[in-house]
Design goal:
By secondary structure, this protein is of the alpha/beta class. It has a domain of 180 residues: Spore Coat Polysaccharide Biosynthesis Protein SpsA, Chain A. Helices cover 44% and strands 19% of the residues. The protein has 8 helices and 7 strands; from the N terminus they run αβαβαβαβαβαβαβα. It has a 7-stranded mixed beta sheet with strand order 3-2-1-4-6-5-7, with helices on both faces. Strand 2, helix 3 and strand 3 form a beta-alpha-beta unit. Helix 1 packs across helix 6, helix 1 packs across helix 8 and helix 6 runs parallel beside helix 8. The longest helix has 31 residues. The chain is globular. The termini are far apart.
Length: 286
């Protein structure tokens, strides 16, 4: 009977921790010991990295979106890494070559991490901005993210991913609600110190903090943890927007609905592990 009670209360705790207890702890920590950012207008050299595989339908709009950013064009470089594309993506990218857009062609398809690792070696920017091949930033997104790097303690910045729901389906509502929760949590974590999970479609890192990521690992997760280990902060900037439609197929809907249930548990457990380490070093003490 005693074991049953323990299992019951442990189950309640595991259910409540990611959605209520952890956010409350982070809120209190940020309230008692708030961490500030010294954001200001700043225009260092920037390289936008866009890994792409068979993105002929999207790549032109994505490149033009980056060229139209409210950022000095002489300080902006764009590199598209074609990971073995076979649908004409490369030819489309070459059409922008006169506008400081470079193509890196990889014959062997090895995934996002390997593509970014190679592109960084060819980049010239002091700040690296990551974009998906179908990510259309708000016009001021890059400028606003860069303002955070005026603070020398900031090593990584992620923007705000918001879902534009065009229907009233459960999956669409679930994705939108989860991202609102996730963005709120990132705001609280930034006020307390650092975040761990980032929005991979709209984020940036100091070039000298980038480290090669094994091709079987997720860059959006590995790089922020590395930055934290160097005593730099990973922060969330709610002003830098990336609007995106949540689903285009039933498969994506299912994956997103699953993520909305599973990811809070994953992220919160990781955060708990780092909180235990924070007496010496960790995200909240970075």
């Amino acid at each position: 009977m005693e074991i049953t009670k323990i299992c019951f209360w442990l189950s309640i705790f595991l259910i409540l921790y990611p959605m209520l207890i952890y956010p409350a702890l982070v809120f209190l920590l940020g309230l008692i010991w708030p961490r500030t950012r010294n954001r200001r207008s700043w225009c260092p050299s920037v390289t936008v990295l866009i890994p792409a595989y068979n993105e002929a339908q999207n790549i032109a709009a994505t490149i033009q979106n980056k060229l139209d950013q409210d950022y000095p064009c002489n300080q902006l470089e764009i590199i598209v890494i074609s990971d073995g594309s076979t649908d004409g993506t490369d030819d489309i990218v070459r059409g922008f070559s006169s506008q400081n857009v470079r193509l890196i062609r990889r014959e062997q398809r090895e995934g996002k991490a390997a593509a970014l690792n190679e592109a960084v070696r060819h980049s010239r920017g002091e700040i690296l901005v990551f974009s998906d091949a179908n990510s259309l930033f708000a016009a001021d997104a890059i400028r606003l993210m860069i303002e955070n790097f005026a603070d020398p303690k900031v090593g990584y910045v992620t923007g705000s991913l918001t879902y534009k729901t065009q229907s009233a389906g459960i999956a669409e509502k679930g994705c939108s609600a989860y991202m609102k929760y996730e963005n709120t949590l990132r705001t609280l974590e930034t006020r307390a110190g650092s975040i761990i999970g980032v929005n991979g479609g709209v984020d940036a890192i100091r070039r000298d903090l980038y480290r090669d990521v094994p091709r079987n690992l997720i860059t959006d997760f590995v790089l922020p943890l590395h930055v934290i280990s160097t005593k730099h902060r990973v922060v969330y900037d709610e002003r830098a927007h990336l609007p995106r439609s949540p689903t285009v197929s039933l498969v994506r809907s299912s994956a997103c609905a699953c993520a909305s249930v599973c990811e809070p548990f994953r992220d919160s457990l990781i955060c708990a592990g780092f909180a235990i380490r924070s007496t010496t070093r960790g995200p909240l003490s970075a």
